[in-house]
Amino acid sequence: xxxxxxxxxxxxxxxxxxxxxxxxxxxxxxxxxxxxxxxxxxxxxxxxxxxxxxxxxxxxxxxxxxxxxxxxxxxxxxxxxxxxxxxxxxxxxxxxxxxxxxxxxxxxxxxxxxxxxxxxxxxxxxxxxxxxxxxxxxxxxxxxxxxxxxxxxxxxxxxxxxxxxxxxxxxxxxxxxxxxxxxxxxxxxxxxxxxxxxxxxxxxxxxxxxxxxxxxxxxxxxxxxxxxxxxxxxxxxxxxxxxxxxxxxxxxxxxxxxxxxxxxx
Length: 265
Hints:
Radius of gyration: 47 Å
Distance between the termini: 161 Å
Number of strands: 14
Largest sheet: 2 strands, antiparallel
Order of helices and strands: HHEEEEHEEEEEEHEEEE
Structural class: alpha+beta
């Protein structure tokens, strides 16, 4: 026993016993520090990755929202006046055009200063041109059959405006009260407003409003009558004028009578 304590004292004086006792604790502390460092590095990496992903998603969402955002005031074209689904689009109603001061009314996807339905109010009872949606100085319901027109509202009575050789002419619309008589026959035609209706069109393709309007015009021979003929004078030296042959099926237009097989005044 005496020798044991001598050894302990010697070791203590040399510091070996303290090192021997503290070594396990130091190792543990070192291991803990290493673990903490590793955990911190892992947590920082994870947090950074999460933050980056969140920031990227936020930035992308913000950029997309910015790129897809438009306001009605930025949509200022008559054919693209309203912001819809992130882009300028055509109007569906008058509200979609209200911010365009010169063209506040919507008609068929376009903004204009008038519509055929509003022409009495917006055009001071004159015709609204459906092609331009602008007011004209043309009178409403004044053009008779084959009178030139830009809108069906120009045509008098049960008639509409139809395109023939790049011009508009008024023709009767076929209804129960209207019978299509020669040189007209019932046909399905498209109005200048692109509406398909039953109308009294010309029976003969060579006869149209340009020719029909020559009825009664002076002529010599058949020159200047288009698809019509130049009726022989009723008396020697009498006047000749453009007309067509008439009969039981070929009736004459209003203001002319069938005399000697020709429509005459």
